């Protein structure tokens, strides 16, 4: 018996056993003759070890062992089986490592992509009410996302860039040299959410069509053609330290923290029965965006409608492109007015669910999903994909734009 060998009560050792350093045997164990215990072997109580057994170093015995064999591992197995397991384990670890490396490579070094051919959608603009056709066109490597007004001589182009934001009073408007394009966020969200890097977005008027108030039509159009992988690697901004935007007065917070891919989490709180507290999390943009975010429609509150009209906004607004949430009761005298405002042909009703005319939502939390859509569109104004997790609470276009400016400033060396 070597150093530090511990034998508990009622242990019976057969003759000729060798116990090397730090062997521990619990109570009521019966060891047959001529057994060899290498260092650091442990044996649980009430176990029988057959004669002529050899236990390799660090073997843990939890079940009785038949004699005449060599054992290893924890729990103890015949050494040949243990070797097989060790070999298998090391193979599994190698495969795991390869998968992890592959995931990293595909996440950070994916090639840029564009669409195989042009696709268009036609409709009215939500705020200006003008009819326009939006056409998404293939673009070369490193082109990024650019808009163009084909109704203006020379078809001036405006890059989708935070520096070009000229108005955020309701939607996001970009402009350059006096040329403006209103409500770019849904088209941008569609492109960015589908991970398209290079595209020219042509418009025949000053505002993108609102379609059904969501990005669904744009996404359907873009998904009707193929995505073409290009030569250059996609540009990705790796968020290595957090950026925090906070407006305590308005209780708005937007953060971005390091993550292994682009993720968005959004929280809104409205003290209205139709809304309440709503939450949305998109952890896999490629799989979730088209299904969970793109179909969520614009919403507004009844009490805002008059104000927006006075500001010259929502000229193209109707019940076919916006969900109107009732944050007050409809007054008797305003039924005709509302009918005109929202292009309602028949009756105007209060709606049991807190939504004008009882319109049904596409998701129980459609409003927060739309806020997520707007945020994804506004984040595209950074001009580069983010590898990081963006968490927003109660934000809108104005704060989204400020947040994107903060990221630009914080990471200006890498952009
Ligand atoms: Zn929107």
- Sheet/helix structural class: alpha/beta
Largest sheet: 5 strands, mixed
Mean residue pLDDT: 91
Measured as a percent range, the helix fraction is 10-25%
Number of helices: 8
Q: Order of strands across the biggest sheet?
A: 3-6-9-11-12
CATH fold name of the domain at 111-233: Ribosomal Protein S5, domain 2
Molecular shape: elongated
Ends apart, CA distance between termini? 69 Å
**Can you tell me the CATH superfamily of the domain at 111-233?**
lpxc deacetylase, domain 1
* Record field, number of beta strands: 31
Bound ligands, named by name, code or SMILES: zinc ion
In words, what does this structure look like?
With 415 residues, the protein is an alpha/beta fold. Among the domains are: 6-106, 3 Solenoid (UDP N-Acetylglucosamine Acyltransferase, domain 1), CATH 2.160.10; 111-233, Ribosomal Protein S5, domain 2 (2-Layer Sandwich), CATH 3.30.230. The chain has eight helices and 31 strands. It has a five-stranded mixed beta sheet. Strands 14-15-21-16-17 form a five-stranded mixed beta sheet, with helices on one face. α2 (185-193) packs across α3, α2 packs across α7 (366-379) and α7 (366-379) runs parallel beside α8. The longest helix has 30 residues, at 79-108. It is elongated and about 105 Å long. The protein starts with 5 loop residues before the first strand and ends in a 5-residue tail after the last helix. The mean pLDDT is 91. Zinc ion binds next to α2 and α7.
């Amino acid at each position: 018996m070597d150093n530090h060998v511990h034998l508990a009560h009622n242990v019976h050792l057969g003759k000729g056993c060798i116990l090397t350093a730090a062997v521990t045997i619990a109570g009521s164990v019966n060891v047959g003759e001529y057994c060899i215990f290498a260092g650091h072997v442990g044996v649980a109580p009430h176990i029988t070890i057959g004669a002529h057994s050899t236990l390799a170093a660090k073997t843990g015995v939890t079940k009785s062992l038949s004699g005449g064999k060599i054992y290893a591992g924890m729990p103890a197995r015949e050494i040949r089986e243990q070797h097989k397991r060790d070999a298998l384990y090391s193979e599994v670890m190698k495969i795991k490592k390869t998968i992890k490396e592959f995931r990293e490579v595909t996440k950070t070094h994916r090639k840029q992509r564009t669409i195989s051919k042009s696709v268009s959608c036609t409709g009215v603009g939500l705020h200006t009410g003008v009819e326009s056709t939006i056409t998404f066109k293939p673009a070369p490597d490193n082109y990024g996302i650019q808009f163009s007004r084909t109704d203006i001589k020379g078809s001036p182009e405006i890059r989708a860039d935070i520096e070009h934001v000229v108005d955020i009073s309701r939607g996001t408007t970009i402009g350059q040299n006096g040329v403006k394009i209103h409500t770019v966020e849904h088209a941008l969200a569609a492109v960015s959410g589908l991970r398209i890097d290079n595209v020219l977005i042509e418009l025949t008027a000053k505002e993108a069509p609102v379609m059904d108030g969501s990005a669904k039509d744009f996404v359907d159009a873009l998904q009707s053609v193929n995505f073409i992988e290009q030569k250059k690697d996609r540009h990705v901004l790796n968020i290595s330290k957090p950026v925090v935007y906070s407006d305590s007065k308005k209780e708005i917070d937007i953060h971005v923290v390091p993550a292994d891919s682009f993720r968005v989490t959004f929280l809104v709180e409205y003290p209205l029965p139709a809304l309440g507290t709503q939450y949305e999390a998109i952890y896999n943009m490629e799989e979730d965006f088209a299904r969970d975010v793109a179909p969520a429609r614009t919403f507004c509150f009844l009490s805002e409608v008059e104000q927006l009209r006075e500001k010259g906004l929502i000229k193209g607004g109707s019940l076919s492109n916006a969900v109107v949430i009732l944050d007050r009761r409809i007054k008797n005298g305003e039924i005709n007015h509302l009918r005109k405002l929202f292009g309602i042909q028949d009756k105007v009703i209060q709606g049991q669910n807190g939504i004008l005319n009882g319109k049904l939502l596409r998701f129980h939390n459609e409003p927060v999903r739309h806020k997520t859509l707007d945020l994804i569109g506004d984040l595209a104004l950074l001009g580069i994909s983010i590898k990081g997790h963006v968490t927003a609470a109660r934000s809108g276009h104005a704060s989204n734009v400020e947040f994107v400016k903060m990221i630009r400033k914080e990471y200006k060396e890498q952009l």
